[in-house]
Specification:
Nucleotidyltransferase, domain 5; five-stranded mixed β-sheet; six-stranded mixed β-sheet; globular; about 375 residues; alpha/beta; 13 helices; about 35% helix
């Protein structure tokens, strides 16, 4: 369970430079649906430890318009911690979800797609066999991506939320099986160019020499603890509040090697952007939304006291209350406190008390990367 960091990346502020990478690998092509404008459609599928999620979209100016979407809690990582293997029932659930995704791709005639698997498949000893089986039974070819690429694409997805005055940026992506954190120095990029500079990061790595006018990754880390895996470590602790406290402190211990936050004073030019189901759920709860509204959540800025107030409400509800709380939802109630424990730890140690909420992540990053590679986005300088 050692957090992943690239060799040679630390607090040195000259560790990043962009490099051109080949086009995303092609996945299985779906037949074109008669009468549809499939030539402008792109798809991105994210198979994680908990969920299988897909977006189908078309580029519109510098952004994209979602045409169709799919999300299903498949819990692919169930049992992985003890056995090191993907289990039969989770794989069956996942294959069924992938068949639905295949049907949607066929319906829309999508041929430009990137379909990826993350932490559960990175860790499981039988993941390659499962990927081959998925291709054989569904026609979809999934690519197991590295923790670095997952982190980089999460950063790309958040580009439009980067404030012009931001000089130091921390992007947090809490997943089911891992949590990625990327610290970026933007001080050498002109304020009006910072968002597009972040967008261009899909072409680079976190381990190259610096380049002029480019975002510079000061440090990054992938902690192999997400909402599902962290919860599994403390299942035997009966007391709800004690379990939450133990999870939060245990997660913070895993950040010992993540250097940038040490001895850095708070300043206005520092921005934290958080992306995950945990963070958007906390934001929706804070807004007292009876029905989730992405337009109200995405881009919301919360301070640490507001985050803490919502999490205290969750604790006061207890497991039974959380299960019946419509703000949390049936699919998330068992894992909301492990996600909240991670979020609490992160808000406790960074040199700011404010966080921008992003209802976006890997799928959006995959779409932006594909569209940008094809020149389909109108990115104004």
């Amino acid at each position: 369970m050692t957090p992943e960091r690239p060799a040679g990346v630390g607090v040195n502020l000259k560790a990043f430079g962009a490099q051109e990478t080949p086009a995303p690998p092609k996945s299985a092509k779906a037949p074109r649906h008669p009468g549809s404008d499939a030539s402008q459609l792109y798809a991105a599928l994210d198979l994680g430890t908990n969920s299988c999620r897909m977006l189908i979209a078309r580029p519109v100016g510098g952004h994209f318009e979602v045409v169709d979407s799919f999300s299903k809690a498949v819990e692919l990582g169930t049992g992985l911690k003890t056995s090191g293997l993907l289990s039969h029932r989770p794989m069956q659930r996942t294959l069924q979800a992938l068949r639905i995704c295949r049907s949607k791709l066929e319906q829309h005639g999508v041929s430009k797609m990137r379909l990826v698997a993350t932490e559960a498949c990175r860790r499981a000893r039988n993941s390659r066999d499962f990927i081959h089986r998925a291709h054989r039974e569904t026609g979809l070819r999934l690519d197991i991506i590295s923790a670095e690429e997952e982190a980089r694409l999460a950063v790309v997805s958040c580009a439009s939320l980067v404030a012009p005055e931001t000089e130091q940026l921390l992007v947090i992506d809490i997943g089911g099986g891992s949590t990625e954190l990327v610290w970026i120095d933007l001080s050498n990029v002109a304020p009006e160019k910072r968002r597009n500079a972040i967008m261009s990061m899909h072409r680079g790595t976190f381990m190259r020499a610096p380049a002029p006018d480019k975002p510079h990754v000061v440090d990054w880390i992938s902690v192999p603890l997400g909402v599902a895996t962290l919860k599994d470590y403390f299942n035997e602790v009966d007391d709800d509040a004690a379990r939450f406290a133990l999870m939060s402190w245990y997660f913070e211990e895993q950040l010992e090697a993540f250097a940038p936050y040490k001895n850095i004073p708070p300043h206005r030019a520092f921005q934290v952007i958080g992306t995950s189901g945990t963070i958007t759920t906390v934001a929706a709860s804070y807004l007292r939304l009876k029905r989730y509204d992405r337009n109200k959540v995405d881009g919301l800025v919360m301070n640490s006291q507001q985050v803490d107030s919502v999490i205290r409400e969750y604790l006061a509800l207890g497991p039974v209350g959380r299960r019946h709380d419509p703000r949390i939802g049936r699919e998330r109630h068992t894992q909301i406190m492990s996600g909240a424990a991670i979020l609490t730890a992160l808000m406790r140690i960074w040199p700011t008390d404010r966080m921008s909420v992003a209802d976006r992540g890997l799928r959006e990053g995959l779409l932006f990367a594909q569209m940008s590679h094809d020149g389909a986005l109108d990115l104004k300088p």
